[in-house]
Amino acid sequence: MERIALVTGGSSGIGRAIVAALAEQGHTVIFTYRSPRGAEQTMALVRRLGGKVEAVACDLADTAAAREMAEQIAARYGRIDILVNCAGLSNTKPIEEIDETEWDRMLDTNLKAPFFLTKAVFRSMRRVGFGRIVWITSIAGDRGGLYSGVHYSASKGGLAAMAKCFARLGAAYGVTSNAVSPGVVETPMSREEGVPADDVPLGRAARPEEVAEAVCFLASDGAGYITGATIDVNGGQYMR
Description:
Rossmann fold, seven-stranded parallel β-sheet, 7 strands
């Protein structure tokens, strides 16, 4: 069944793979972006696959703008069935270099923005009685982040908690909320930061498409009885 999906941060890396995978499954996908060039590349990829896609420039940290975007999409399509919170910042700054400005920038983007966008989308999902919310967290939020900054780890741990909160809130309305927690993934961001994959039992970093597969499962009708859960895509780096 065709669904209306909103994916944040779809112009590169994991976000692009998620947009492409959902579109391949026949869904209409709207994604937000920061890089116009990256957005064009994602659009071109999805169109080659024959998918339906739309790109929307939106500063998600501007909560009023994000709410307006969600309301416009819901009004145009009648609903938003799937929300994937993927957009985010990452860095490996040591604690000595994290000042208040850096902390606020990270938490505003990675934690505050997803909450207020999800709050707006949840209103639409609750009205129609269906929804799939998927949060892209991180192994750093589970084990403290060996290579990630403290503020990044804290933001991803916060997302994992919010996934559970929305799972409880949405249960009565047919809305599920789950997290996908990647480890090291082959993306421009991880290459730029030099994150190693030396301690991965499977011996390599994940491909973005492997993360996207987990997202697609949680967004599917087949995952209707799964909520408040986390799927780890980390090659065995962290085992629950």
